[in-house]
Amino acid sequence: MTAAGTATATATAKTWNVWLYVLMGVGAAVVGLLPWIITGMRLPLQNLWADEGAGLAEPMPFVLLPFSQYFVTLLIGVIAVGSALGGLVARLTKRHRPRFGTAAVAFGVLLVQLIAVIQTASVVEDGLRETSATELYFYGLTGGAVASIVVGMLVLGLIAAAPAAGALVGTSLAAVALGPWLSGLILPHTLQPVPPEFLAFLQSASLWIPAIVVGLTIAWCGLGSAGRIVAALFGLLVLWIGPVTFTAVASSIGSRGLARYPAEMLEYGLQVFQAALLEPGVSLRYVALAIVVAALGLAARALRTRRPNH
Fold first, then answer.
1. Tens digits of per-residue pLDDT, 17-68?
2. Which of 13, 158, 246, 275 has the most CB atoms within 10 Å of its CB?
3. Burial class (CB in 10 A: 0-12, 13-18, 19+), 114
4. Torsion, CA 211, CA 212, CA 216, CA 217, rounded to 10
């Protein structure tokens, strides 16, 4: 083969590699949507829907995202977890990643998520009643979805390409969203012939898994520099505040009685947040588990490092 032919073949291989990473990004975003996909992807019942019989006499329309004030945490979860998976794929394939591999993964994830937001928003906008409350509801959900995508892209970049401390920060942010994502995987099975005790165990375990993820990531990252120590503290802080924030948001936004009163809704959310944050048994249990897991991981890492010296 001539030099020109070899160069062309190499360029073609690199192009295919980039498109492969785009497809991996698409796959990561789709996996992120899995808790919503297994429900059938029918729009949840809407309090402000123009057709009051929709969802009863006939099914709600097909949408790519769970747009509802009762599904806000799941909405954040499916976007954040998809982005985090994209970042993880890019980092795990770092040795074989082409020049624009991370950008290609991000493009694939972003493509799926933007299509999902646009499709869902257009369906919801067409079906809602035309009132001021409707505008607040629609733009609030759409803005929240877009903000989740922006944060998700930050998480993807940190996990994919940042040093260990940055990857720990990104993983910690994603781990908080993992809780609602796992709950979303479990919830649809409550209507199936599955033992309720087993479902209760899975639901309880889904609340603790983010803490295990953060603890394991701290152990992987280590505490060998000031930056890594700060990142570990940040991870524990996110693990403390994140679940409490989700609880407050779900409680306030999910209150139908407060839907027309944004100021009262915000005040109620802050009250729930403060009450849960100041109750150690609720807010600090996940932090405690993460510290234990991190300590065990760091101890095992230290033993493995010292073993060859003996």
1. 888 999 999 999 999 999 999 988 999 888 778 766 555 667 889 999 999 8
2. 158
3. middle
4. -40
User: 246 near 179, Cβ under 8 Å?
Assistant: yes
Contacts 24+ apart (CB under 8 A), 96-100: 96/17, 97/21, 98/14, 98/17, 98/18, 98/21, 99/14, 100/18, 100/21
